[in-house]
Amino acid sequence: MRVMTTFAAVVLLGSAAIHAADIHVAGGGDDAADGAAGRPAATLARALELVRDLRVAEPGRTTPLVVELAAGRHELAAPLVIGPEHSGTEASPTVFRAAAGTTAEVSGGRVITGWQVDRASGSDRWTVHLPDVESGDWSFMQLFVNGQRRFRPRLPAQGWFTIA
């Protein structure tokens, strides 16, 4: 089951397809790495730092700067902020693409695991304990199950809460 808000940004240009990737991102990567093919970054946030650094180091660049995402799901821990320092120029745009022959998903959501059926309720409800939600450290507005929106339960089931 997934709770997610999906954001995907892919810019494909005819000339970019022939260029090798400058920065690689893979879930099993390391954010201390330089993003090279054998040393991918782990997150898109780190990839943007590397893009910024390359733009400063190569101000006259005339080829696209390509960020290649490994196959799979790339979750964002915080909003991805892409600014002018990342965008490049008409002659050298910044291109985000999935690795050849694969699909990469960029998501601002979280996968929630640990679901259990609550048979004691008599309605076979699915429940999960989320300590971050309980403590107020995290909240969410939307719930998706296998790609379909599900409404969160309303409490109380009938009537209203009243203040004593």
Oligomer: single chain
H/E element string?
A: EEHEEHEEEEEHEE
Please state the average pLDDT score. 84
Overall 3D geometry?
Answer: elongated
Helix content: 10-25%
How widely separated are the two ends? 37 Å
- In order across it, which strands form the biggest sheet? 2-3-5
Strand residue percentage: 15-25%
Helical region count? Answer: 3
**Radius of gyration of CA atoms, rounded to a whole number:** 21 Å
Low-confidence stretches: 1-16
| SSE class | alpha/beta
Notes on the structure:
With 164 residues, the chain is of the alpha/beta class. The chain is built from three helices and eleven strands, in the order ββαββαβββββαββ. It has helices at residues 44-57, 84-87, 131-134, and strands at residues 2-3, 23-25, 65-69, 72-75, 94-98, 104-107, 110-111, 116-118, 125-127, 143-145, 148-150. Strands 2-3-5 form a three-stranded parallel beta sheet, covered by helices on one side. The longest helix has 14 residues, at 44-57. The radius of gyration is 21 Å and the shape is elongated.
List keywords for this structure.
single chain, 164 residues, alpha/beta, 3-stranded parallel beta sheet, two-stranded antiparallel ribbon, 3 helices, disordered N terminus
Write the layout of secondary structure elements.
Blueprint: E1 2-3, E2 23-25, H1 44-57, E3 65-69, E4 72-75, H2 84-87, E5 94-98, E6 104-107, E7 110-111, E8 116-118, E9 125-127, H3 131-134, E10 143-145, E11 148-150
Parallel strand pairs: 2-3, 3-5, 4-6
Antiparallel strand pairs: 1-7, 8-9, 10-11
